């Protein structure tokens, strides 16, 4: 996590060329892979029973849990919940086991197939790892999943069902089928000859998103529980807003009508005035329509004052993990008073009238920040974080 | 094939599938109690053993294979 943050502040792109044989025929041959492969962290036998998305979730959860200091705190398992979602689930397992079925027949299909491909698998494995007994949940809302999981976590704590929630998202679908599917929608950048410049939110030359993989997990804790044990608090999850567009299965509303309502709901949930929101970590995926629609929504609901960034310019789009990874970037921006840059914003779209931390990180006092996530299906999630 | 050869072949499979230390594998060991092989991994062991030793081990038979020795005896018969 610390190294990802350092790389963000340095404006380093994680996108590279796909050199695998299977990528040769694809119209898109770039992606942002995790810097540390799960095989460097988890043992071989454990990995055979985990989909890559589950392995990444467990690795991220371990980092978050170790950071929380809850491991030896005597936390009652019945007060610990998990909310971890994935946009697509165990697609790599499904496709690999289908290859085995076709080539060798049903008896050779792994008995671990179902727990590896089920969409609740990452949540269930994280729950097992930490003995969570207050409920294990797996929201699925495409590219809003990670943020939705964190919003559910807030609800669980506010309703008193748990004191601590391990929440976030995971995704690992750098595989020819999902890439071909997104490419057929004309949703992805085809800047294959220049991977590090392919993800360029708000830039005039943007031509689609770049697929990333990874997981983002946070530990949410009620203020009382955290205070009682003297926990080190990074930031406060002050509010969340969830809405749906009722507009189109994949097209964003051109004025971000539903996204705007999510931002307004988050402000209400946090009991904040829009003027207090000094920074927005935008959903901005580098697609022609979506990037500017979100700008319209931010201007309408928050105003013209916040400083924006789009960390997807560096990480690519982690789909179901995006909202969680960007939540962590937002939390660290609030804590460290510095906004990670938006790289590749060389020639801003004329409609971009808001201030963006382009090219370089921006130092700024941030009492409150907003993180937006929108997903195919018309899912909108806005999260607001305030200083601890 | 000798009993020893089958035992060592099973040890290889158990290491690959379930991470069992081959030194821990001997005929009197129970798959679940001593070697900590869970039910899903046992399915993998059976399929791998069928392939390695060229035998058929029907699902009905698997429940009778409590120990490594039970499996060795079944494979020798087959």
From TrEMBL, chain B:
| Pfam annotation, one family | PP-binding
Transmembrane stretches, start-end: none
Q: Which InterPro entries did the record assign?
A: ACP (IPR003231), ACP-like_sf (IPR036736), PP-bd_ACP (IPR009081)
Q: Looking at the record's lineage, which domain of life comes first?
A: Bacteria
**Carrier domain ranges (all copies):** 4-78
Positions carrying O-(pantetheine 4'-phosphoryl)serine = 39
Per UniProt, the keywords (alphabetical) are: Cytoplasm, Fatty acid biosynthesis, Fatty acid metabolism, Lipid biosynthesis, Lipid metabolism, Phosphopantetheine, Phosphoprotein
The PTM entry states: 4'-phosphopantetheine is transferred from CoA to a specific serine of apo-ACP by AcpS. This modification is essential for activity because fatty acids are bound in thioester linkage to the sulfhydryl of the prosthetic group. 4'-phosphopantetheine is transferred from CoA to a specific serine of apo-ACP by acpS.
Pathway it works in: Lipid metabolism; fatty acid biosynthesis
Q: Which Gene3D superfamilies match?
A: ACP-like (1.10.1200.10)
* Main localization, broad class: cytoplasm
Compartments it resides in: Cytoplasm
Family note: Belongs to the acyl carrier protein (ACP) family.
Q: Any idea what job this protein has?
A: Carrier of the growing fatty acid chain in fatty acid biosynthesis.
Q: What is this protein called?
A: Acyl carrier protein
Which organism is the protein's source?
Answer: Hamadaea flava
């Amino acid at each position: 996590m610390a190294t990802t943050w350092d790389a963000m502040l340095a404006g380093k792109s994680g996108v590279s060329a796909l050199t695998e044989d299977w990528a040769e025929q694809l119209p898109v041959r770039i992606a942002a892979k995790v810097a540390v492969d799960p095989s460097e962290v988890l043992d071989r036998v454990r990995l055979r029973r985990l989909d890559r998305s589950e392995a990444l979730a467990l690795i991220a959860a371990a980092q978050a849990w170790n950071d929380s200091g809850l491991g030896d705190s005597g936390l009652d398992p019945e007060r610990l919940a998990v909310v971890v979602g994935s946009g697509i689930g165990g697609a790599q397992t499904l496709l690999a086991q289908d290859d085995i079925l076709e080539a060798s027949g049903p008896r050779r299909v792994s008995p671990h197939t179902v727990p590896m491909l089920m969409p609740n698998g990452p949540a269930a494995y994280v729950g097992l790892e930490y003995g969570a007994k207050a409920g294990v949940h797996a929201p699925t809302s495409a590219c809003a999943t990670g943020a939705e999981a964190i919003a559910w976590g807030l609800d669980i704590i506010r309703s008193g069902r748990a004191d601590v929630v391990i929440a976030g998202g995971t995704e690992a679908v750098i595989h020819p089928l999902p890439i071909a599917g997104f490419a057929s929608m004309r949703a992805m950048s085809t800047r294959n000859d220049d991977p590090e410049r392919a993800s360029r939110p708000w830039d005039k030359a943007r031509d689609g998103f770049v697929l990333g993989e990874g997981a983002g997990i946070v530990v949410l804790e009620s203020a009382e529980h955290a205070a009682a044990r003297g926990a080190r608090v990074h930031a406060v999850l002050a509010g969340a807003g969830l809405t749906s567009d009722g507009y189109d299965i994949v097209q964003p509303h051109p004025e971000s009508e539903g996204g705007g309502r999510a931002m307004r709901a988050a402000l209400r949930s946090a009991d904040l005035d829009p003027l207090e929101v000094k920074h927005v970590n935008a959903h901005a995926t580098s697609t022609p329509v979506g990037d500017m629609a979100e700008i319209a929504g931010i201007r309408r609901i928050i105003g013209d004052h916040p400083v924006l960034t789009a960390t997807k310019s560096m990480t690519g789009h982690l789909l179901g993990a995006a909202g969680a990874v960007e939540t962590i970037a937002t939390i660290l921006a609030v804590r460290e008073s510095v906004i990670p840059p938006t790289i590749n914003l060389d020639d801003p779209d004329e409609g971009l009238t808001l201030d963006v931390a382009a090219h370089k990180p921006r130092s700024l006092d941030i009492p409150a920040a907003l993180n937006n996530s929108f997903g195919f299906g018309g899912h909108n999630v806005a999260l607001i974080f305030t200083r601890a | 094939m000798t009993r020893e050869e089958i035992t060592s072949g099973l040890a290889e499979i158990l290491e690959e599938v379930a991470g069992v230390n081959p030194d821990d594998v001997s005929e009197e060991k129970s798959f679940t109690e001593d070697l900590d092989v869970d039910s899903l991994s046992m399915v993998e062991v059976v399929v791998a053993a069928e392939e390695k030793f060229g035998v058929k081990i029907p699902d009905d038979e698997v429940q009778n294979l409590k120990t490594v020795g039970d499996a060795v005896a079944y494979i020798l018969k087959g």
